């Protein structure tokens, strides 16, 4: 290695180390703050304290129903993920396996929906969903129901695109063989395709669960009754308090970040693949 | 005849796979979008709407809050997106340097901010940059400043804070795209360039950037669309304040619907500005990307 390369590498180590510290510090600080009293946190302590159980007790006893919000977030995220996997993967699968001109056109239309910003949808969606509560069959997805948050996240252009891209690698011979064996089209999808594409589903599950778990704007509009609020809504309410209890707040942040953090460390590969879409990570 | 029949049945089954997703997207994306377009020509309070022609669009021209929201959103776009893209490019080309150790560790660490929810990281940043927060305490201990900086209540610092926050959250995300792009580039061309005496910067400027152009274009469009819809961060860090200096278009639309007396028609008109901006900017970026090819 030449002297110039050595110096260049040394500079790069320094830059990368600084960036690593900046990236990780807020996580480190959350954990420190979680174990300290609010007053000590504002003094700038960077040492772990012994106040964690007290912070946790305060959090569980606060007016904001943290456990209830955790439960709401979990129900919404799990139901959304299960339904999204069925609906979006079926569509992505069919666009490749049953290719036709008409279906290509429909797929392009679906892709176009990626361009529609949520800002342009929030007003009509709000008015639409507020009407659902007075229509007997649609009460399940009216405002202030879990369904209202679930239903708009089941079919997304991103997921359909993701499954379409990955289905291209699915061997067509498997389908032919299954047909000869007398398996129906839906049987081929559920019994051959789904098990074969496990890793694609894993990536899609991770990204769908995470998007649902972290979603803020639509739940803020749709879930205005207190007993239906999800975690981001509770965190936001805590953050806007005039006299924030930092210890309690960071306990809430850490607990609500745990599920996605666990997903990340257990399934790092699928996590990155899911977040970046069809680009191979 | 029989063959056609079987084909027809297969075709029908194919549509059954697609229809649930298609119906959902038509009902909850395209139908609302058309509704928003139609409502943007109506005026009135709450559900008492009547046709008002272009009144809503005219109102925007004299609405100072709207102008502020538009200015802020474009400011975040013009300042933050280039900083983040360049930073992500620089990091990924460093992480592609095979003679460095611990590259996996650095990559994981710099990607880590992506696992946080936008609300969670926003309130962490709000706490860190509060008047009595850690950043001010540290800067004062190091004697960089003598008085705490009002990150949340000073117009300039509030904007800087939003830019710092978004950059922290999204740089690692963009880095991943570039890293996967770089992996597909043959190392031998870098080796050849090194033998010809190219410096690190020259390799970055004349090889990495041109080779990654399609991915850079993709991430730029992605970030543009994201920034034009910025909401969670400004809502939770600064609430759009002080005096609307960080309010974004999305937040203004939210305010028009839920904070002030609901004005559906005007909110719809403002939201169409976002639609038009996204379409126009994506189009320009694609054109520019093509031309340089």
Keywords summarizing the entry:
heterodimer, A: 281 residues, mainly alpha, 15 helices, B: 293 residues, 13 helices, globular
In brief:
Chain A has 281 residues and is mainly α. Chain A has helices at 3-34, 38-42, 52-61, 66-97, 101-112, 122-132, 146-151, 157-167, 172-180, 185-196, 198-214, 217-222, 231-239, 246-266, 268-276.
Describe it for me?
The complex is a heterodimer of chains A (281) and B (293). Chain A is an all-alpha fold and 281 residues long. Chain A has helices spanning 3-34, 38-42, 52-61, 66-97, 101-112, 122-132, 146-151, 157-167, 172-180, 185-196, 198-214, 217-222, 231-239, 246-266, 268-276. The radius of gyration of chain B is 24 Å and the shape is globular. The relative contact order of chain B is 0.13. The model of chain B has no long low-confidence stretch (mean pLDDT 90). Chains A and B meet through helix 1, helix 4, helix 5, helix 6 and helix 10 of A and helix 1, helix 3, helix 4, helix 5 and helix 6 of B.
Per-chain topology:
The complex is a heterodimer of chains A (about 280) and B (about 290).
Chain A lengths: L2 H32 L3 H5 L9 H10 L4 H32 L3 H12 L9 H11 L13 H6 L5 H11 L4 H9 L4 H12 L1 H17 L2 H6 L8 H9 L6 H21 L1 H9 L5
Chain B lengths: L1 H38 L2 E2 L6 E2 L3 H7 L2 H32 L7 H9 L6 H11 L5 H8 L13 H29 L3 H9 L4 H12 L1 H16 L3 H6 L11 H11 L4 H28 L2
Antiparallel strand pairs in B: 1-2
Helix pairs in contact in B: 1-13, 2-13, 3-7, 3-10, 3-12, 10-13, 12-13
């Amino acid at each position: 290695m030449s002297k110039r390369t050595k110096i260049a590498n040394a500079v790069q180590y320094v830059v990368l180390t600084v960036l690593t510290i900046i990236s990780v510090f807020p996580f480190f600080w959350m954990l420190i703050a979680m174990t300290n009293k609010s007053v000590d946190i504002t003094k700038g302590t960077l040492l772990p304290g012994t106040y964690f159980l007290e912070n946790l007790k305060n959090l569980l006893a606060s007016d904001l129903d943290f456990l209830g919000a955790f439960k709401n977030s979990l129900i919404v995220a799990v139901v959304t993920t299960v339904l999204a996997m069925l609906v979006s993967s079926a569509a992505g699968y069919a666009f490749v396996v049953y290719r036709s001109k008409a279906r290509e056109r429909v797929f392009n239309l679906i892709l176009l929906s990626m361009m529609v910003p949520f800002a342009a949808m929030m007003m009509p969606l709000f008015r639409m969903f507020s009407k659902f509560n007075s229509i007997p069959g649609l009460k399940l997805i009216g405002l202030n129901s879990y369904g209202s948050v679930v239903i708009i996240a089941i079919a997304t252009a991103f997921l359909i695109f993701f499954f379409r891209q990955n289905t291209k690698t699915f061997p067509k011979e498997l389908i032919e063989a299954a047909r000869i064996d007398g398996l129906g089209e839906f049987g081929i999808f559920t019994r051959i395709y789904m098990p074969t594409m496990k890793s694609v589903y894993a990536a899609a599950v991770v990204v769908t669960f995470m998007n649902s778990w972290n979603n803020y704007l639509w739940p803020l509009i749709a879930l205005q009754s207190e007993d239906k609020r999800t975690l981001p809504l509770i965190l936001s309410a805590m953050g806007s308090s005039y006299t924030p209890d930092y210890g309690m707040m960071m306990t809430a942040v850490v607990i609500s970040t745990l599920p996605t953090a666990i997903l990340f460390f257990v399934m790092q590969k699928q996590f990155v693949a899911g977040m970046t879409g069809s680009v191979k990570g | 005849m029989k063959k056609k029949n079987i084909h027809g049945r297969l075709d029908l089954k194919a549509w059954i796979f697609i229809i649930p997703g298609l119906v959902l997207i038509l009902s909850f994306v395209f139908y609302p979008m058309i509704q928003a377009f139609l409502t943007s020509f109506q005026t009135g309070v709450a559900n008492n709407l009547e046709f008002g022609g272009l009144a809503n669009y005219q109102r925007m021209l004299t609405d100072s809050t709207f102008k502020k929201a538009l200015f802020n959103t474009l400011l975040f776009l013009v300042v933050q997106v280039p900083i983040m893209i360049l930073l992500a490019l620089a990091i990924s080309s460093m992480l592609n340097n095979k003679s460095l150790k611990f590259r996996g560790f650095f990559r994981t660490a710099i990607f880590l901010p992506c696992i946080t929810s936008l609300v969670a990281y926003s309130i962490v940043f709000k706490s860190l940059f509060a008047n009595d927060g850690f950043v001010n305490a540290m800067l004062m201990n190091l004697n960089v400043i003598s008085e705490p900086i009002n990150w949340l209540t000073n117009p300039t610092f509030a904007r800087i804070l939003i830019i710092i926050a978004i950059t922290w959250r999204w740089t690692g995300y963009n880095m991943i795209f570039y890293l996967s792009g770089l992996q597909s580039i043959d190392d031998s061309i870098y080796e050849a360039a090194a033998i010809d005496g190219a410096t690190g910067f020259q390799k970055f400027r004349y090889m990495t950037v041109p080779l990654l152009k399609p991915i850079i274009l993709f991430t730029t469009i992605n970030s543009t669309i994201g920034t034009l819809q910025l909401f969670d961060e400004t809502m939770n860090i600064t609430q759009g304040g002080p005096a609307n200096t960080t309010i974004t278009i999305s937040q203004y639309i939210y305010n028009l619907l839920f904070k002030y007396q609901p004005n559906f028609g005007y909110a719809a008109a403002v939201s169409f500005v976002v639609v038009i901006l996204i379409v126009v900017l994506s189009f320009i970026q694609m054109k520019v990307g093509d031309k340089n090819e």
